[in-house]
Amino acid sequence: MRGALLVAGTTSDAGKSVVVAGICRMLARQGVRVAPFKAQNMSNNSVVTLDGGEIGRAQALQARACGLEPSVRFNPVLLKPGSDRRSQLVVRGTAIDTVGARDYFRHRTRLRELVADELASLRAEFDVVICEGAGSPAEINLRDTDLANMGLAQAARLPVLLVGDIDRGGVLAHLFGTVAILEPEDQQLISGFLINKFRGDVELLTPGLDRLTELTGRPTLGVLPYTDELWIDAEDSLGTVADAPVGRPRPPVGTDWLTVAAIRLPRISNSTDVEALACEPGVAVRWVTDPSRLADADLVVLPGSKSTVSDLEWLRRTGIAAALADRAKAGRPILGVCGGYQMLGRRILDRVESGAGAVAGLGLLDLDIEFAAAKTVCRNAGAAAGIPVRGYEIHHGRVLRSGDPSWLRLESGPEGSVREAIWGTHLHGLLESDDFRRAWLRQVAAAAGRTGFAVAEDVSVAGVRAAQLDLLADLIEKHVDTDRLTRLIESGAPDRLPTLTVGH
Questions:
Q1: pTM over 0.70
Q2: Domains located in the chain, CATH noted
Q3: In CA terms, which of 68, 79, 227, 404 is 20 to 30 Å from 323?
Q4: What mean pLDDT comes out for the span 376-392?
Q5: Is 131 noted as a catalytic residue in this protein?
């Protein structure tokens, strides 16, 4: 089997990432040498690859679905939004510029060539490459500069599978309209549809799908059912809405629950750090933006941020900063990760990310941070209280001074700060170290007075992730016409597909 496919979506968050992961896992289980590819991603959820760069977290998950280590080859262009108008531009894993929409155009010719070369290299090495689009291919105002949707499909002659999320409503119109608004040559590559997140009796949807085929000449290859079992390694922060639970809380092993309030920062980065906690029975994790929701939480997590100084000001403006100070005085647990760790300190000197200069931190840790122009991007490993840990770092902020003891001893040296029940670290992914997480949660429970809380001894975050990938593959195999899908990958877009016209 040899070929390639582009999975596009009618909207952002339509399910492109999970569909690509599911197809990759299905093919890998069949012994196909398959790789994922997303030409251009926009996300603040990233991971550090084995080759020392950073890529979108969804592509790291897709690589694991293929049985591969994450690589910058799978996501050569990454945009990390720091504000509504400007994003950090990461090319082949390295941050090279901060750009707005207009000055991004000056990079487009070089990026288009880079993307084409990378995809060609992957196709030469692997049997199959499953590509993921970005946003929607119907963003015709951006067609001339498109690297990831129809621009990529045209350059590489890729058949396109269009995914629509029925949860949003109007999915049949979304699918029809997406095709119809495209130029005729782009329409010729849209080869089929896939419905995502369907609830109920699929027979009630069948007449609509039949009519969609009549109108467009394109089949619907499958209807994937909704399941709330798929939640780990989210593509971006769209799902981290206020008051939303993380995962599916399971009953506790002991008699007490442990409740976790994860603060949903406006420019949250690597929000997936808290997912390891949500894997544990008896741990209920919820995103919050209201200081009142911190009052009854056993643990508050202050996650990473792509705009640390701006999000720190938001904490003060919303009253969350005052609520955190009250928790610290009462000796109640707080964890800060990366940008959240930096906010917990006394002083931030930032002439790089915000240009704000010296800014007072929350003062809950005796810590001074300075932002450096060079970005720290690395994997790291070591131990905490003799327990092996590993993770990765992605940050501009560096510790100038710390009067609090470190609690992690990594290959690079001491890391993090601790004061009573307040912990902070730059290390993302720390809580995925299962033995460490269990030991640390016992400390948190003791500090919170949850004497009846007990940790399970058999929870593996890697195992949960693998099970979700297998579930995705199972859903693809059961609910998608895989014979048609295989033919599409191998043979490309069918000849002479109907061209739709938009009425006037």
A1: yes
A2: 3-219+481-491 (3.40.50.300), 258-460 (3.40.50.880)
A3: 404
A4: 95
A5: no
